[in-house]
From TrEMBL:
Species per Swiss-Prot/TrEMBL record: Streptomyces wedmorensis
Keywords, sorted A to Z: DNA-binding, Phosphoprotein, Transcription, Transcription regulation
Domain OmpR/PhoB-type, residue spans: 137-235
NADP among keywords: no
Matches recorded under Pfam families: Response_reg (PF00072), Trans_reg_C (PF00486)
Protein name per the record: Response regulator transcription factor
PANTHER family documented for this protein: DNA-BINDING DUAL TRANSCRIPTIONAL REGULATOR OMPR, REGULATOR OF RPOS
DNA-binding feature ranges: 137-235
InterPro entries referenced in this protein's UniProt entry, alphabetically: CheY-like_superfamily, OmpR/PhoB-type_DNA-bd, Sig_transdc_resp-reg_C-effctor, Sig_transdc_resp-reg_receiver, WalR-like, WH-like_DNA-bd_sf
């Protein structure tokens, strides 16, 4: 890809889209926002470029020739943690949920505002790079769960959990406020940092998190549904002696 001005200082973004017009527009907006951008035209090219130089974030079209966006996302996440924002040409809810379930951190439906996409990219990167000031220092514990905001690592019963960026933030927030009922709107504001967005994003991430921390995700005991409100985190009680 030819240089288009000085490299950005905001991070390296890999844009994966087979539509040259969309790729050019997205690249232009991201570069003007201070990002260094590389473009891949299909899923295999994206994996090759990511292998040569790991990106800070991937903007990934769902409908790609050859290796589609879903499989490309699966393979990227199998190599290492990287935030992924998916682009989808259709407004089908099941398609969006599938994208989130394979590890995407967010999605944007075409046609979309390039400015909105830039805001989503900045939001995802900001959440990944900063330690939320409201989170206490040290490891947060709830039952056999341990969450370390400094290293962004979480474990259950001593076994490290493979969490996406958003799953970690969601778990850290729940552990910080046990026994409190949170609406999906509140979780979107507090965890995602958005005042707008599709609330099914929260629903899918709660479901994914349950699959990783619950003994029986179909009958969750840690992240409980509060009907008509949202969710409440109820940590398991451990046999501990207090001084």
């Amino acid at each position: 890809m030819s240089e288009r001005g000085a490299p950005g200082s905001g991070g390296r973004i890999l844009v994966v889209d087979d539509d040259p017009t969309v790729a050019e527009v997205v690249t232009g907006y991201l570069e003007r926002a201070g990002f260094s951008v590389e473009h891949a035209a299909d899923g295999l090219d994206a994996l090759r470029r990511a292998g040569e130089r790991w990106p800070d974030l991937v903007v990934l079209d769902l409908m790609l020739p050859g290796l589609d966006g879903l499989e490309a996302c699966r393979r990227l996440r199998a190599v290492g943690p990287v935030p992924v924002i998916m682009l989808t040409a259709r407004g089908d809810e099941e398609e969006r949920i599938t994208g989130l379930e394979v590890g995407a951190d967010d999605y944007v439906t075409k046609p979309f505002s390039p400015r909105e996409l830039v805001l989503r990219v900045e939001s995802v990167l900001r959440r990944g790079r900063r330690a939320a000031p409201a989170v206490p220092r040290g490891v947060l514990r709830a039952g056999d769960l341990a969450v370390d905001p400094a290293t962004r690592r979480a474990s259950r019963a001593g076994v490290e959990l493979a969490l996406t960026l958003r799953e970690f933030d969601l778990l850290a927030y729940f552990v910080q406020y046990p026994g409190t009922a949170h609406s999906r709107e509140d979780l979107m504001r507090r965890v995602w940092g958005w005042d707008f967005g599709d609330l099914s994003t929260v629903t899918v991430h709660v479901r994914r998190l349950r699959a990783k921390i619950e003994d029986d995700p179909a009958r969750p005991s840690l992240i409980q549904t509060v009907w008509g409100v949202g969710y409440r985190f109820e940590p398991e009680r451990t046999e501990e002696t207090t001084a």
